[in-house]
Amino acid sequence: MKGKLVVVSGFSGVGKGTVMKRLIEEYDNYALSVSATTRKPRPGEKEGVAYFFKTVEEFEELIAKDELVEYAKYVDNYYGTPKAFVDKMRNEGKDVLLEIEIQGALKIKDKFPDAVLIFITAPSAQVLRERLVGRGTEDEETVNKRLARARQEAEGACKYDYVVVNDVLEECVKTVDIIIKSAHNRTEDNLAIVEEIRRDLSK
Amino acid sequence: MKGKLVVVSGFSGVGKGTVMKRLIEEYDNYALSVSATTRKPRPGEKEGVAYFFKTVEEFEELIAKDELVEYAKYVDNYYGTPKAFVDKMRNEGKDVLLEIEIQGALKIKDKFPDAVLIFITAPSAQVLRERLVGRGTEDEETVNKRLARARQEAEGACKYDYVVVNDVLEECVKTVDIIIKSAHNRTEDNLAIVEEIRRDLSK
Fold this sequence. Notes:
Two copies of one chain form a homodimer. Chain A contains eight helices and nine strands. By secondary structure, chain A is of the alpha/beta class. Chain A has a five-stranded parallel beta sheet with strand order 2-7-1-8-9, with helices on both faces. In chain A, strands 4-3-6-5 form a four-stranded mixed beta sheet. In chain A, a hairpin with a 2-residue loop joins β5 (68-74) and β6 (77-82). The longest helix of chain A is centred in the C-terminal third of the chain and has 17 residues, at 140-156. The first copy, chain A, starts with a strand and ends with a helix. The A-B interface holds A 11, 119, 121-126, 128-129, 147, 150-151, 154-155, 157-165, 175, 178-179, 181-182, 185-187, 190-191, 193-202 and B 11, 119, 121-126, 128-129, 147, 150-151, 154-155, 157-165, 175, 178-179, 181-182, 185-187, 190-191, 193-202.
């Protein structure tokens, strides 16, 4: 059975990364997509694990050769999803998790209508605001950019297939898991068996 | 959280009834809708458990008073779903399971676009044919009617949201359960929290 393409988005600081890490650790049907980006590596980020780090020239070559599932520019950096890796994993039956911004997510939905789009939200506005503002490590401009981005994300959430609240992490992980598993039973993926039956009964 | 309206259909003899019984027994979020019908009770069928048994006059009064979620006529008998019972259960947070024919299922989909439509199929044409023909207790006319109906059902399956194979009962039950549970996270049911966040961030 071919794996699903799963897009996970959500407000910054809402714990999407942790949710995806847990899915990978606790279930054997998931693979994490590794994105390409032109942003600089942060301390500890390894090539090919967190990201494939690219120069702008390299990234624009990937675009030109149509080797990306999607790409977007965010705060002066490119982010994109290399096709080859995603296809390989899906053909091995893995559900491939992409953590991407809303821009990229909606492009995926256009190109791959059977993709599963999941938006992860904080349990309340107060909790989200605390997470966005309260780290205390960022300057005002960064915080303002983050708030503006969260507003955009909130406006785009309605385009997703599912919204999941990350209040209790374990529950959120389980919910995301059953959403993805149940997507494998969507009718469009399972008509072959019914069609076989219809043909047999028409003999 | 309001319960979902869940329509379960599938080929005759495929074990839908058993799947639904197991859902009710093994999980506490399900309620079985009890249908009204004008067909005669079979031995052991109790009023208000298997069905509410009605005369044709009584049933047509339910229709006239718009007290049915849906109804259909099949093999000279009316079958329908009383509204009051379904609403009560859903308001108590129960996911209400309706086992109905394809005619009724598609009417439900029109009237309640958020209903979850699940079609249960046998694992192969051969298995289904054995189940339809092989009971050995029915005359040829009944078997032919059953085969004709199965063909109709196969043609209608594409209108459902999900198709689930009933090969190993336990797996089928689990799959139907996660399909219904995951439907509670559909975006349209969960935008209130995101909207609250959007408003807060726009202050």
